[in-house]
Structure formats: C-alpha cells, structure tokens
Amino acid sequence: MLYLCGEEAIHDLISVSDLWTCFESTTALESWLMNKQTIFINPDPDFNRDLLYKGSPLVKSYQEFQTMIDEFYSSGKVVSFFNSEKETQRKELIKSIIGFGDGFNHIRASKYFAQNVYKSKVQNPKSKFHFWHWLVFVLIRVAAPFYSRKIFSKLYKLKKHLWVFENYKMEKLHKLYAKYVPSFEEFYSKQGIEQKFKDGTLFETYK
C-alpha cells in the first residue's frame, strides 16, 4: 500500500488510477469527468453523505467491494456503475454542481468575465461591503507571514485551509500554467477553438 498525503495533486492521482473508490468524497465528480469508474464504500445506508454517492455503486461490505474489484479487472468495468439510473444521476449531479462536464466551462466563464469588465467601464459599478469577506481577507494577510505548515496543520479550522496560505500570493501560477499549456493547445486544436473565436461563434457555441 502507498499512502500519500499532500505529496501529489489529487487530479494526478485520479488520472493514473484504474478505479476510484472512496468513503465520502467530492473527488467522485472529478473522477467522472476524467472517465473513471467509482465505488462508494459505506456499510450504513442512513449515513448523511454528499449526494454524489447517488452516481456510484454503494458497497456495504468487504465481500461486495472485492466482488466489484474482481469484476472490474476481469471485464474492464463495474457493471452496476453503468446502469441507466446511475448514468442519469451522474449527468444531473454534474449539471447541478458545475453546469457542464464538457471541458468548456472556462470559456463560458471568460465570456461573463469579459461582459462584467465591459459593464464596469461604461457604468458606475455599485459595490457592497461584506464584513465576513473583509475579515477573512484581513486574517489571511495577518497570518500569512507567520505561516508554517507544521504548526497550522495542527490548528482547529486552519488545518482544512492550508491551501489558502500556500497559494494566496499565486506565486506558482505561471509555473502551473506553463505545465498545462501543451494540454490546452492540444484541446483547443481538436475543438477548433481558435477558428471559432476568429469567426465570432465561440461564445454562441458554448453558452
């Protein structure tokens, strides 16, 4: 068994996996978008869990779990994962959580971002003060200079938000972007994104 905790990005782990299993995790959504089959493990049918479990087979015992694993490696799929009810649930869950699972959400977001930038130039933007957002901003600014993963990981509430302190300056953004540029270019080339942008049909195509 190989135990990883923060050493690798979760999407990289999903990418190299054959089958994704979890007890209670929103990573099931990422797995579906990467065409991975998923299994939820929980012996309690009344367990209060995220609705994502509805899109996966739910096993209640070691025997059921092992049977599905054997099924996957003998046939290449977990049959119950592909029943019509599960497929419908996955489509509905993806739609309700992120809208679309086609990979074009960043293009849709750029459209609305551009519209808002334009409006801010021709209109007098109205802003509201949100105390909670302001307080979070101040706390991050105050605590960030003293950030220590070893210490903060042991503090209540903060231990779940280490990524905020490690990324709030966006120092790794350019390096991360450079890493994924080849994937973006390949995707855009296959989908004819550049041509659609030039002829003005891009944002109409992906509404």
> What structural category characterises the helix and strand content?
mainly alpha
The DSSP helix count reads 11
Shape: globular
| Fraction in beta strands | 5-15%
Round the Cα radius of gyration to an integer and report it.
Answer: 21 Å
Mean pLDDT: 86
How does this model look, in words?
The mean pLDDT is 86. This protein has 207 residues and is mainly alpha-helical. Helix 2 links the parallel strand 1 and strand 2. Strands 1-2-3 form a 3-stranded parallel β-sheet. The chain starts with 9 loop residues before the first helix and ends with a helix. The chain is globular. The protein is built from 11 helices and 3 strands.
List keywords for this structure.
globular; 55% helix; three-stranded parallel beta sheet; 11 helices; mainly alpha; 207 residues
